[in-house]
Amino acid sequence: MMGRGIMLFLLVGLFRFLVVEAATNSQDFAVLRSFKTQWQNIPPNWVGSDPCGEGWEGIVCKDSRVFSIQLSTMGLKGQLSGDIGSLTELQTLDLSYNTGLTGPLPPSIGELKKLTNLILVGCSFSGPIPSEIGSLPQLVFLSLNSNSFNGNIPPTIGGLSSLYWLDLADNQLSGSIPVSNENTTGLDMLTHTKHFHFGKNQLSGAIPDKLFSSDMKLIHVLFEDNKFTGTIPATLGLVKTLEVLRLDRNSLSGNVPTNLNNLTSVSELHLSNNDFVGPFPDLSGMQVLNFMDLSNNTFAVSDFPSYFSTLKSLTTLEAENTNLQGPLPPALFVLPQLQTLNLKKNLLNGSLDIGSSFSDQLELIDLQSNSITGYIERGGYPNELRLMDNPICKGSVGPTSKFLVPYSSGPHPSQTWETPLRSFQTHDAPVDSVSLSNPKEDADSYLEVSLQVFPSDKQSFSRSEIAKMGFMLSNQTFKPPKTFGPYFFIASQYGNFAESVSPGAPKKMRLWIIVGASVGGFILLTLIFIGIHLCCRKRTVKTVNEHRDVSEPRHSGATSWDPTRSSGTFPQLKGPKVFSSNELRNATNNFSKANDIGSGGYGKVYRGTLASRQLVAIKRALPRSLQGKSEVRLDWNRRLRVALGAARGLSYLHDLANPPIIHRDIKTNNILLDERLNAKVADFGLSKPMPDSENGQIVTQVKGTMGYLDPEYYMSNQLTDKSDVYSFGVVLLELLTARVPLERNRYIVSEIRVAMDRERDRYGLSELLDPALGLTNPLKGLEQFVDLAMWCVEETGDERPTMSEVVKEIEGIMKMAGISTKADSATSGAFDTTSTRSYHPYHNNNVASFDYSGAYTPSRVDPQ
């Protein structure tokens, strides 16, 4: 009895201890309750009286005290009340990207003495920045950019001795930059701060000489697009740690200080659109420069600087309208990284000599409105050369149209900034893949790039996950490569959050949560897009976030058709439906043998009847399963029909589905044949929605089937619709050879490529062709078919056709062979749901798949 009493006492004590640990400090609860009453769109689980114990979303506690509030991108509306000052243990306050948060910052924010992160980016706060913000001795990140703050920069910010990041950009701040004197502090005292981001304000006056010193550790000074006057302070040349300097779009004047050349770590220099005079600056010491813009200044007439040809890291040189004269040295065009050269509206003269060994990165040479009189052609520069409004173009020398070729905008940002996915995963963000697309440059020389983020194996992101990613991006936890400048990130609202554990659950359940037990649940595997707009370039980066809900047909489910949007034989997708495992069991009578209708390379296929009485085929994974084979063979004409049907189905996915879809696993096992041998594309287990922009690419983990996998996708992790085209080209080669693509280190693409001889009959491929084709008779269109297959498997996606082009080519081959391009049923690549005939795609075992042997196989998989 005594032992039981002791145990009961210990259990009661443990219970009391746990309850005490979970209880929220009454003062902190009062503050959160005031937020709850003043804000709209708060998280739905903000109920009850114990935010710490009941797990209010966005609230992180330690020892019953609130120590972090992360509510980024929640759609909050209201004002930040003065009650915030009572959260005396608060270390992180992140309310960024809630445009509905308005009004001034309360002075009581200065009472948060333990605050290390104050992140209010992209809200609608207004009024002056309170001077009390300088009373936060442990503050490391101060991000107030992209609001409507006005008035002066508080001098008290100079007292934040722990400050690493100071971002006040994109507001309405005015006045001069405060520096210290005998009575006040100033920003010159921030010797440990590495970021001064003050761009896009209305700051004026001279940039104080006292602002900079050799003691400072600054790496980014961003003062662009303000109203600064006077000269560049010579003290700026003392900050040897500086990597990015933006003073463009001001009214600065005078000479550029000569000691600016001492900043040997600067990789980006922006001095354009000012009133600088004097000699063209000597920047020969900046040997790591990759971006330089000195355009639109009134420098004295100067010969073209020879030091430009020594800057081996230079990618972009912008020196428009700077009074440069003389000929251009051929060595300039040999710089290995040079991509863009803009020297228009200068006094350059003589004959242009690009040389024969120019950089293969060079895509644009813009020399408009100069005095160039000739052109020495050596190596046939293939990209865009602009010589308009030069004497050479005015008839005295002759036309120059041959020098003007279409401009290529250069590599897609995802080719050079391929780390977003890795960075998300490194910081344990729930991201499976990302898509970079739609790059465009804005008026401030920032490049905007759309980034779409896919959650990992769940229906949508939770509020805490959204807040975590917003915090990562706003406080620069996410680090782009060093070749890119700083970025800023703007988010819109996300409105499809995953369900949270209800705080109204029984107290017994909450007790088990307190002691550490976990409750599992079944999550439907449908992905939701989040749009996040990032900017990346080898210069300053601007990011914009936009959230959208677009279902991704990548998991098991039936696709419904919208007949009102159908066009010809291609119906439009309404969107995929996701089924629970119970629904699938009910539809197949628990996967009974009576409903077993075949098997595929991935597993068995069952006949199913949904609650709506719709018949479907349901594939169930079965390790080590193999597909059947039969005695039916496909002749040449039938193989052309199969190729056309599959091409039409894939073309539909790329061009007409809503959203367009990249299949990602095109292979013969995933192409189905009905009883009339019409082909249908199947199995969307690895599919991805296509990015909005036609230049878009998806950066994602490589998945697919070896032998069919696009090598460009495999090497770069960048998925495009041309990856499907490559896989389809391999399928065409299988139709020709009846060989598996990859076997015993023999690759079908390489074998065909090596053996091809266009001067010989059948391109010299007779030994590789499938004997079942009947090689004693001519195969009409064979050579054209081979050409098409090899076009599809070109090394780079840009060299491959689109699937609509593939369809046209196959139709042309079939007409050449005298074969009708009409399918034997109304379903060309997709099942017909409007036909009045008695035909049904699941009737009498009439759906088949085919494999590399070309055999008709009476097994069925779910149709497209």
TrEMBL record:
EC number(s) reported in the record: 2.7.11.1
Bilayer disposition of the protein: Single-pass membrane protein
Main localization of the protein described in the UniProt heading: membrane
Domain Protein kinase: 509-814
Domain of life: Eukaryota
Gene3D superfamilies attached to this UniProt entry: Ribonuclease Inhibitor, Transferase(Phosphotransferase) domain 1
Gene Ontology CC annotations of this record: membrane
Protein name in the entry: non-specific serine/threonine protein kinase
UniProt organism field: Papaver atlanticum
Classification of source organism: Eukaryota, Viridiplantae, Streptophyta, Embryophyta, Tracheophyta
